[in-house]
## 1
Amino acid sequence: MKTTFAIATAAAVMMMAATGAMAKDCKTVAAAGSGLTQGIAEIMAKGGVKTLIDSRGMTAVGEPKVKCKDGGMLTECHAQQKACK
């Protein structure tokens, strides 16, 4: 049940943003995940980013950057990664 909640959270807050400094066909892909532990939240956030990149037919560049925040009962992590077509 917690996994379903984390996946739904990641899907709800997913976004894509392009920056001017990146190449024309590259974007920063971001997603969030939550879980009872930081490890679970990180896995969910990174999985959300990977899913978004794959579903858009893009290739990931480098490693995802992850920031986490303890929210009491659940930890929430936000991951972002550069991806190009």
Note: Strands lie at 15-17, 26-35, 59-70, 75-84.
## 2
Amino acid sequence: MYENQDQQSFPPKDLPPRPNNYLVLAIITTFLCCNVTGVVSIIYAAQVNAKWEGGNYQGAISDSKNAKLWGLIGLIGGFVLIALMMLFYGAAIIAAMNSGGY
């Protein structure tokens, strides 16, 4: 069974490990925080495995880094925006309560 397999179908031993595609981070970013950066992150994440299997190892590593970068930008930016909105609306509510309703 194993003696008929082509040895070229296995990757060489000196390849770096397959990079993480950060697809879970991209999906979480898309649904929870920022759709724009999340979609960009999903696109990069989807390209990682295809480039790796096609032999473009540097492209796969680059897309992995870009997927992580855009996912983190979306998460951090989304949470900062949410915090700012909470501060703004909280200050507006406190100001309205202190003015006596006028």
Note: Residues 21 and 45 are 5 Å apart (CA to CA).
## 3
Amino acid sequence: MNILFSSLSGHDQTQSQHYLSIMRRLGHKVFNFSVPASLDDPLRGFLAEPGFSPGINLETIIRLAGFEPDLYLYIEPKGLIPRGLGKAPFPTACILCDTHTWLEARQKQALFFDHVFLYHCNYLRFFNEHPDGYVHWQAYACDLEIFRPVGKERDLDVAFIGQLHPQTERAALIARLCDLYKMNEQCFYSQREIPSIYSRAKIVLNMPLADDLNFRTFEAMSCGAMLLTRRVNNGQELLFEEGKHFAAFDDEKELFDKVAYYLAHPEERELIATAGLAEIQRHHHLEQRVIEMLGAVQQKPEQVAPIRQMSPAQIDRQYAWLYEYWRLVEPGLDLASEARRAGRPWLPLLLSAIRSVLRKIKHL
């Protein structure tokens, strides 16, 4: 397939880099584009990269790609949703991840696309603007060429990678574990560093922020560690079997009891870790997910994105919301000017751009 692909550029922590590698590995022709990434903090995975104006038109991108696209694919966060996407003469698709943190924003983004792929099956019911068969559950998975067991010695009792805000229950719990067991340093880890940490761990502890089936679930098992995660009905019970592929806990007491038990019973722990890795390798690797996703689009290529049925004024409002959500000032101002010249309502668009300015100032 010929694919136009956009996601956050210059960011080591986004999963889009793995999708890009695998699509190309599978032989697809991919034109990768996004907004510019600034040199915000290179130690946290941000790299300066060239990019395009967020207000660019789809026709311009197609000319730059140099081929007739078969698909436009967007993976959040903050790639590029070009103007004119609702008139694309080919299917469009998005992958939305953080439905558990700001559902309404994901619902609004979904309106731009024909196919919507969600990481979390427990949020499918909230996306009802599309016909049946165009909103899909696609759990995350790892590129097994990167996330795999490396090295031989598992010298860490427990590994944890995640945000630890001061004065939170989560931070206090990890501090207690650090006092009791040998753990990795609690700091930021880039994507390339995570496999080596998890490959050193006997147990990887996962503490999802809400009811999300997060990346750590798959990364831990892909690296051959025993996953210990919160017991949540978020799809993990459909993909894996507790006690066979992973261990789980409901509360703090069960967490500490499970850590102590499985460190004291290495044969049981290694049996679970081995079974988890094998299940990942058989059924839950990113190459398989990409093949299934592209197959779903090819099977239903109809152009059903809600934005395709909207009036020009309604489309203006959708883009105005998007630019405000991303705190993009210039595209919002350009949108208001364009609407004014065309005789469409423009004052609400200008107000949206002004709010973008205020939000940007607030976050400086």
Note: Residues 156-283 form a domain with the Rossmann fold fold (CATH 3.40.50.2000).
